[in-house]
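Thread: "does anyone have the structure for this chain?"

Original post by V.I.:
We have the sequence but no experimental structure in hand. Need at least a predicted one for the grant figures.
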Amino acid sequence: MIDNLQIEKLNKENFLPFGDIINKSFSSSKLSINQGTTIRHHNISELKLSDQNGIPAISIFSGSPREFPIQIKIMEKHPISSQSFLPIQNHDWLIVVSMEKNDLPDLDTLRCFHVDGSVGITYKANVWHHPLLVKKKQDFWIIDRIKDKEISSTNLKEYYFKQNEIRIIKI
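Reply from O.Q.:
Generated one for you, tokens below.
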């Protein structure tokens, strides 16, 4: 049986088990810098990028929209590091996450969040999430871990759903 996945409004509390929301309103401290001309919204999201000789890197992902209804058939996680997504264009987007059970995504805990286009997110290390889901063609600054200037396959695990596990997102 294929179940529908409800879209929830993203907030700090419901996303906390999975990571951080990157938005200046979530700044725990604000510092005046640059001779008083700039406000630094300090330490909004902590990153874990350098374990096992990882190299912190900034990339750009160019996402293409998927057709609705979207079938959720895969989840991935990065066991060694966090991963941040910062939208370049102000287009709303979606994220799908789940808790973990026996080193696999716990499909009973799948959640879909609507993300405002002015907001970024950081997935904690080892959090199961769906690959990028955009509603319009959209670019993102990505801050994550690479190894030796290459993409690290040791930091990517994927889970492909069985036919009876597929979930659907409708708008």
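V.I.: this helps a lot. Residues 12-15 form the longest helix (4 residues).
O.Q.: and Residues 49 and 159 are 22 Å apart (CA to CA).
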